[in-house]
From TrEMBL:
SMART domains: S4. The keyword RNA-binding applies. Residues 1-22 are annotated as: Disordered. Residues 7-16 have a biased composition (Low complexity). It comes from Luteimonas soli. Responsible for synthesis of pseudouridine from uracil at positions 955, 2504 and 2580 in 23S ribosomal RNA. It catalyses: a uridine in RNA = a pseudouridine in RNA; uridine(955/2504/2580) in 23S rRNA = pseudouridine(955/2504/2580) in 23S rRNA. This is Pseudouridine synthase. Residues 33-91 form the RNA-binding S4 domain. Pfam families: PseudoU_synth_2, S4. Belongs to the pseudouridine synthase RluA family.
Length: 329
């Protein structure tokens, strides 16, 4: 039976929802991009769950073979994209004015190549799983004539620094730095950990495995079969019997800080997934902590082979400053 494969052309135009199978040649400037992210760019409006489903089922092929969602593409690769039924553009409306204003006021840095925000807690990095508008969709609505791509993600409940690329060259440089696992890009977080952490720096070297629970929810655990993961935790202050800490991560695994903190017996305060329910309840009642106490505070890197250094920072979210004040010494 004949099917409607179209010729492989760089960045082939996207058909209307429900069109035929497409063969898309990966442009050279997309080399190194993950397959799932490439598909999200090709299938505008598709939820991530749908992208993972068509990859897992083998409907997506790279150079004729099956591939995984985290496969890194090369320029010239041919990607088979099956027909998928999408909500027509426009069905979702536009981001609420409050979200647009919050995102505009959260910008902490901008130049010709990069834009950085201090993401509020509760806002997803991107839409999907019932969320129409995350950080990237809202920024694109604010800047409709600009090309914007997420450099990295933060958990929905984590606040703080997020970097968005305005130029493809900056995105590919930063993605290459991130693959160096800590050597090319330094990330610093601030967290309140339950209980009294010992003095000095505690390095947690524990491999992490991402599993899926029923309903597609990700759950991460320390597992020898997981990916190498390294965090360095240093107590800055004792507050109300708990530890206000600086965390530097050398790897950027899903939920890394939260699972490593749980692993050493000092979970992140306010973490309803990996935390201590009793500690969370007391902190909510006594000092009004109603969210995960984890904040991406800074990122250091250099572009253009080290010639252009960046030190980007996002001040601790006001509601977390208030919690520290109420906890006292």
């Amino acid at each position: 039976m004949a099917h409607s494969d179209s010729p492989a052309t760089p960045g082939a135009p996207k058909p209307a929802a429900g069109g035929g199978v497409r063969m898309v040649r990966v442009p050279d400037d997309r080399a190194g991009q993950r397959l799932d992210n490439f598909l999200l760019g090709q299938l505008k409006g598709a939820p991530k769950s749908l992208v993972y489903k068509i990859v897992r089922s083998g409907q997506v092929r790279v150079n004729g073979g099956r591939a995984k969602a985290d496969t890194r593409l090369e320029g010239g690769d041919e990607v088979r994209i099956p027909p998928v039924r999408l909500i027509e553009p426009g069905d979702k409306g536009a981001p609420a004015r409050g979200l647009l204003e919050a995102m505009e006021s959260s910008i902490v840095f901008e130049d010709a190549r990069l834009l950085a925000i201090s993401k509020p807690s509760g806002v997803a990095s991107h839409g999907g799983s019932g969320i129409s508008f995350g950080v990237i969709e809202t920024l694109r609505a604010l800047r409709p004539n600009q090309s914007l791509e997420l450099v990295h993600r933060l958990d929905r409940d984590t606040s703080g620094l997020m970097v968005v690329a305005k130029k493809r060259s900056a995105l590919t440089q930063l993605q290459a730095l991130m693959r160096e696992d800590g050597a090319g890009l330094r990330k610093r977080y601030l967290a309140l950990l339950a209980g009294r952490m010992p003095d000095g720096v505690m390095s947690v070297d524990a491999p992490l495995h991402v599993g899926l629970r029923q309903g597609g929810e990700r759950h991460v655990q320390v597992n020898d079969g997981g990916k190498p993961s390294l965090s360095h935790i240093r107590a800055l202050e004792r507050r109300g019997g708990h530890s206000y800490c600086e965390v530097r991560i050398e790897t950027g695994r899903t939920h890394q800080i939260r699972v490593h903190a749980q692993h050493i017996g000092h979970p992140v305060a306010g973490d309803d997934k990996y935390g201590d329910p009793e500690v969370n309840r007391r902190l909510r009642e006594q000092v009004g902590l109603k969210r995960l106490f984890l904040h991406a505070a800074s990122m250091e890197f250099a572009l253009d082979d080290g010639r252009v250094p960046y030190v980007l920072t996002a001040p601790l979210a006001p509601e977390l400053v208030a919690v520290l004040d109420r906890l006292g010494g």
